[in-house]
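Entry: Nuclear transport factor 2 family protein
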Amino acid sequence: MFTALIAALALSQAATPAPTAEAQVASVLDRLNQASSTADEAAYFSLFAPDARFVGTDANEHWTMAQFRAFAEPWFKHDSAWSFPATSRTITIAPIDCRCIAWFEEKLASPSYGETRGSGVMRLTDDGWKIEQYVLSLAVPNEKADAVVALIKGEAVPAH
């Protein structure tokens, strides 16, 4: 009886397929939001490659990990640093033999910014999938783009 139970357990574990590369990448992105939502700085930054880049919404936000971490450190002293949960996501695994490069784009919901976008590149390392580049951008509706551009340039907002 005991041997049959062990054999059945081994068979059930062997029959469980490994998560796909797409599922693994999605898990990293979900953990990224979870870590920032709970202000878990160590968990958040562990998801990035050491030489990763973070590109933020401001034109001056093009950071190495050390620069981004220095910027973000005060935010992680709160109960939540920030929260950008994905509402939809597309993940593409590069069609190369190693299946070790992925890129993604996702629609994000932000309490402070509304609909935003996240996109980037990941690489499969010995420690799992790591973010090499993350780009956070504001989603500006086309019909409001002229007004946003005018604000950025310091010009009067055009009347419609």
